[in-house]
Design brief:
Layout: E1 3-4, E2 8-11, E3 26-27, E4 31-34, E5 42-43, E6 49-50, E7 59-63, E8 70-72, E9 78-79, E10 82-86, E11 93-95, E12 101-102, E13 105-109, E14 116-118, E15 123-124, E16 127-131, E17 137-139, E18 145-146, E19 150-153, E20 160-162, E21 168-169
Parallel strand pairs: 1-3, 2-4, 3-6, 4-7, 5-8, 6-9, 7-10, 8-11, 9-12, 10-13, 12-15, 13-16, 14-17, 15-18, 16-19, 17-20, 18-21
Length: 174
């Protein structure tokens, strides 16, 4: 399975330990990996795009996968809507080394063991939120523009945040 014209939902599979979508390169709609308590990792090695370029309502949603120690999407370039990584309490690694564009928003929260967040994204169409991450470091080395709000809140362990290329935030910086 390489391309899905619509959406993919992998949800509420409490005993599922592995998910093999290794050939998936793109979706035309959302991709949701949600409440899969026994899933050992979220590894999408070929995924490059989620949603068509001109649509902002498609979400890449990785949330409440209680046993996942790693979230890896090494070929991901673009999410047309929202990228939400939340409440993956055992995740120690978030790897998206080629991510360039997020059409609508980025939300990273409640990943208790994720010490470092580094994303190479260059632009985010609307908003960016990091909250309750437990990360000590957030690095956005190529981020140039956030269309609306850029918020980093309730990150008690955070000692360093870096966005050296940032030139524009359309609304609030909190």
């Amino acid at each position: 399975l390489e391309t899905v014209g619509g959406s993919i939902a992998v949800q509420y599979n409490l005993a599922m330990e592995t998910l093999d979508l290794s050939s998936l390169t793109s979706t035309g709609g959302f991709l949701s990996i949600y409440v899969n308590d026994s899933l050992s990792e979220v590894d999408l090695p070929s995924l490059a795009t989620v949603g068509p370029e001109d649509a902002s309502n498609n979400v890449l949603y990785v949330r409440l996968n209680g046993s996942a120690s790693r979230i890896s999407m090494p070929e991901l370039l673009r999410v047309s809507g929202v990228l939400k990584i939340s409440s993956n309490h055992r995740a120690t690694e978030l790897a998206m080394p080629k991510l360039e564009t997020i059409g609508h928003g980025l939300y990273v929260s409640y990943n208790a063991r994720l010490d470092t967040i580094e994303l190479p994204v260059t632009q985010i169409g609307r908003w960016l939120y990091f909250d309750h991450t437990n990360a000590t470091s957030i690095s956005l080395p190529r981020l140039e523009r956030v269309g609306d709000n850029f918020e980093v809140i309730f990150n008690e362990a955070l000692t360093d945040i870096s966005a050296p290329a940032l030139t524009s935030v359309g609304a609030g910086l909190v």
